[in-house]
Write a structure and sequence with these properties.
The protein folds into 2 domains: 161 residues, Fructose-1,6-Bisphosphatase, subunit A, domain 1 (Fructose-1,6-Bisphosphatase, Chain A, domain 1); 104 residues, D-Maltodextrin-Binding Protein, domain 2, CATH 3.40.190.80. The chain is 29% helix and 25% strand. The strands form 2 sheets. It has a 7-stranded mixed beta sheet, with helices on both faces. A 5-stranded mixed beta sheet has the order 9-8-10-12-11. It is globular and about 50 Å long. Its cofactor is Mg(2+). GO terms for molecular function: metal ion binding.
């Protein structure tokens, strides 16, 4: 194929997420942490490094299932994927005009520890605009998705592609709790604290980035702020931005320009108008 059929490619992602989720679930009880080498990061905690090092056979199998499902698009997709597996060599483009983003098991350490907070994350971005994205929690039986021109949706116990509900914010919204990642500048953390916000690092109490963003979706927190986060890890933030009134911004409160691959330098997701005003006055 020489062009993206958005509906077709979303259908492929949805079906593959369900199938690969079943496979990952069946492997979880006997899984082994094979670990992978990672670069040292200054001031990184041992807990965070352990999360980056974690790798299993399930990561590779899930990735291969997606790469094989998307083979009809191999000549127009550039890959931004977690693992180096057999089929990555079949995708030769490196221009990132249209990119397939995949984290086959986001939260591998939680997967190894037999928890339910791991997910399968996949998305397609074309020229800085997401065509679609999904985050599937197989053990929780819940999937969050977004599609260009259609909005954001949630599946409970997903089986059929049309059996979904639109994601909407509750009427009661937390107005001061903000989650952030450890790379965020202490000056911005302090600035927001001075303006009345409760700042909580996303590793506190082992909540993790995905559940911190889900708290934003459920309006139990008013924002998530990320600095230098990999796009593969923040597809839930993309889905948040597709919700009615959901905003994705840079640190000055401007509408975000999504990176085509790799890390998003600055990210704020929120529906809090006051926070947007505060950010607009922030000076780095």
């Amino acid at each position: 194929m020489n062009r993206i059929d958005k509906d077709n490619i979303f259908s492929l992602l949805f079906k593959t997420a369900l199938k690969s989720g079943e496979v990952a679930l069946s492997m979880q009880s006997t899984i082994v942490n094979e670990k992978k080498p990672v670069d040292e990061i200054e001031n990184e905690t041992s807990c965070h490094k352990a999360m980056r090092e974690a790798k299993t056979k399930a990561d590779e199998i899930v990735q291969e299932m997606f790469l094989n499902a998307l083979l009809p698009y191999k000549d127009i997709l550039t890959l931004d994927v977690e693992e180096d597996t057999c089929s990555t060599s079949l995708y030769n483009l490196k221009n990132y005009e249209c990119t397939f983003i995949l984290d086959p098991i986001d939260g591998t350490l939680r997967y190894i520890q037999q928890e339910d907070g791991w997910s399968i994350c996949a998305g397609i971005i074309k020229e800085n605009t997401f065509l679609c994205a999904l985050v599937y929690f197989p053990k929780r039986k819940i999937m969050y998705v977004c599609e260009k021109y259609k909005g954001a949706y949630v599946y409970h116990n997903p089986k059929h592609i049309d059996d979904r509900k639109r994601l909407v914010f509750p009427s009661m919204i937390n107005k001061d709790k903000i989650y952030y990642n450890y790379r965020l500048a202490t000056s911005l953390v302090s600035y927001l604290q001075e303006n009345g916000f409760e700042m909580i690092e996303d590793t506190k109490n082992q909540i993790g980035c995905p559940d911190a963003i889900i708290e934003c979706i459920n309006a139990k927190a008013c924002a998530y702020i990320g600095a230098g986060r990999n796009l593969r890890d923040i597809l839930l933030a993309v889905i948040f931005s597709f919700m009615q009134q959901g905003k994705a911004l840079d640190f000055q409160g401007n509408p975000i320009v999504w990176e085509t691959h790799g890390r998003q330098k600055e990210l704020v997701i929120t529906i809090n108008a006051y926070l947007m005003q505060v950010l607009s006055k922030y000076k780095k």
